[in-house]
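Problem 12. The chain below contains 358 residues. Write out its predicted structure in token notation.
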Amino acid sequence: MLNIGVVGCGKIADGHIEEIQKLGCARVLAVCDLEPILAEQLAVRYSVPHRYTDFDRMLSEHRLDVIHIATPPYSHLTLAQKAAEAGCHVFLEKPLALNATDGRHLMECLEQTGRKMTINYWYNFESPALALKEFVAKGNLGDPIHIESYYGYDLAGGFGQALLSDDRHWVHQLPGKLFQNIIDHAINKITPFLPDEPVEIIARAYRRRHLRDDRTDSVLDELRVMILAGGMSAYVTFSSHARPVGHFMRVYGTKNTAHIDFALRSMSVEEKQTVPSALGRLVPPFKSSWQSLRQATKNAREFAGSRFQFFAGMNRLMSLFYDSILHDTPVPIPYAEILRVSQIMDEISAQVYPVRVA
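Solution.
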């Protein structure tokens, strides 16, 4: 039984604890937050026996196997280092750190201490993403040529409103502001396909929303990124205005094209048309409808079996990470992939929020 500690008792921490409690190999022993009321409320909601406002004290008073870090990214390096030096493995909320340099230092600390880490790229462990991985592994896609990764966001939600109404919100302190806190959801889906070659990035961002006359802020809310690496290209789109709010990826290969809809938890394939002339234009809609029906049936079975949960991907990722600790197997996400996401994000931030020298 792994003993788990959670530092950072905001909204996402609820998701972490709920999924940990579904696993038979781990239990949450302690939670920690600088704000006492947040730590107390989280502990009470999930019957966690110990709560702290001092992370060092939590580490010293309990023998914890894994620390889940769910705090703002500027604290990730310090907290992860302390956890690793205390003998704990680390489950980290995205993004990796304030920048790729901090991320690299974090990984060096893990290597020195012999501890393991993973990051909460949970969408990549949901059923559609796993189906795509299998589809590619079987050679059905062919060689990837181009990827489109789209992430929509609603600034009218609770987090967006808190960010825009408070100039002291921690997101304002990030080099990439809102984008840096969100877009790794889009980028981490691309990196597994990119060849191990230098990457060229062109990023453009702008503010589409209208500000009141008495308000100004530096938060841009629309982002477009083009990525080139070897013989591959990718587009990343972040939009806080397009409706409905979408979250999907399209992977174009030399054999077929795959479309993953993370919001609808579905995968469909566009195949090369082999039926000639007008008949060839009649068949594809029927194929598409059949794929949709088959996916809907699969989702219904998962729902009936209580597997169609919001954080199903997080649960699967946690399970794989805990297994890697218990059985000394490789971590579910390679460190090089995590670091590459951070490096790409650094370059995007530098282009859309350039540092102006006086």
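Discussion. The mean pLDDT is 93. Students who got a different answer should revisit the alignment rule from Section 12.3.
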